[in-house]
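Record DUF1772 domain-containing protein, 149 aa.
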Amino acid sequence: MSAADALVLAAYAGSVWGMVGLIWFVQRVHYPAHARVPADAYLGYQAQHIARTGPVVGPLMAVELGATVWLCLSPPPGVPPWIPWLGLATVAINWASTALLQIPRHRVLARGFDAGAARSLVTTNWIRTAAWTAHGVLAAAAIVTALTA
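=>
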């Protein structure tokens, strides 16, 4: 395996597993906590969520996308091409879910707490949780197959 392959695989696995850990925290802790924030503090809480989330997830998602595309176009020796292509499908699911499901619910919550939007945020986020977890398994498989080639 070349140094470039190793670097891309490290960026790939690191970004994917960073998001796996983050999405599980969001799913099990952060999103359910929305319902516990006092009404008089909710707008500030949601504004802070929006302001602070992008700088954390944006770089990870960008590296994940870039590394996944790179691996689709140039898989390292031993990595079956279907692994990064399936990984790219999980990236598409996550980006679509974020844009079409989570962001609209956050926009509702940015106007004030809405129990239905908060419940829906938790429920629909299982899509991203499952997709990122699957991508984590694929990233681990890519590493193992590359190292054992």
